Amino acid sequence: MSLSSEFQDLLSKQEQIINRYVVNLHTELIRSTPVDTGTLKSAWELKKVSATHWVMSNNMEYADIIFRGIRAGVKGGSKQLPDGVYPILQRFNLELQEELQKLKG
To answer: For 51-91, what is each residue's pLDDT tens digit?
Structure first.
């Protein structure tokens, strides 16, 4: 196997890991989104821009208030998601970084 094919194999594995984590994160954010009418939960969007670049968004006008939780003395969050989405994002980021580190092994 040449260096070029090894590099391509590594990039392919990296892309697969990132894709899996992004889809799992998107699923977890939808699952964790508080429900009153269901509008906020159904407003999640996920778009793949390139091999390792995704855009995940929720365009509901009150999404930021619900998702930020209580930060810097500013009250946000909800009874169902009092800490906002940051703990979920931090957990997924840590797990993704650990998984990508294994590729370097």
So the answer is: 889 999 999 998 988 888 766 566 667 888 888 888 999 99
Location of structure tokens 């954010």: 29
Which residues make beta-bridge pairs with 56? 46
Say whether 41 sits in a helix, a strand or coil: helix
Domain ranges for the chain: 3-104
Strands of the chain, DSSP E: 44-50, 53-58
Sign of the CA dihedral with 65 first, then 69, 74, and 78 last: positive
Identify the CA nearest to 80 among candidates 27, 41, 22, 51: 41
Cα–Cα distance measured from residue 78 to residue 36, given in angstroms and rounded to the nearest whole number: 11
pLDDT of residue 69: 76
